Amino acid sequence: MFFIVRHGNTFEADTPPRRIGSRTDLPLTAKGVKQGELLGRYFADQGIRFARVFASPLMRTRQTAEAILKAQPTLPPIENAEFLKEIDHGADENQTEDAVLDRIGREALLAWDQHARPPKGWIVEPDERIAAWRALFAQENAGAATLLVTSNGAARFALMADEVLRKQAEKLQSLKLPTGGFGIIERGADGSLVLKEWGERP
Fold it and tell me: Number of structural domains, the chain?
């Protein structure tokens, strides 16, 4: 099973959130750390024991992974995974949502959130990301739980990496994961991938 987690909060409640990507390496807020710890307790209470853990090199994802692992009886190493790194928002990096909407328009943002089609000027490398997800899914999992801690822009390409998952994702209102949220992908009895959860929080 694959547990795909978006990192916790990086903005305080009184700070307007901005589009931060691969060029803006922010740490978690205190609430963000608590979100990670809550995820950890939730998974542990479900009897989930992670055999492997992947995270992008950004602080916010690694700190979230560390917070989740506090609730695990054993601590697998956190493996670096570049394909989990957040995208580069180009001219929209570090801009408020209103400023981003003014530049790219609502339709472009909806295409991104519903179909993973990048707005003009964003550096996303979807083919490389999809190939990396496919390679991961192709590895022998044998029912073991794999934790992947990533960012909002990167997580959605898990759903684009498999035709069955892509069709299941069409039923979602959005491909976005909320901060401190997660999705679960597992293999069915016939070997196909199944989207069990997406956009859930503990």
Answer: 1
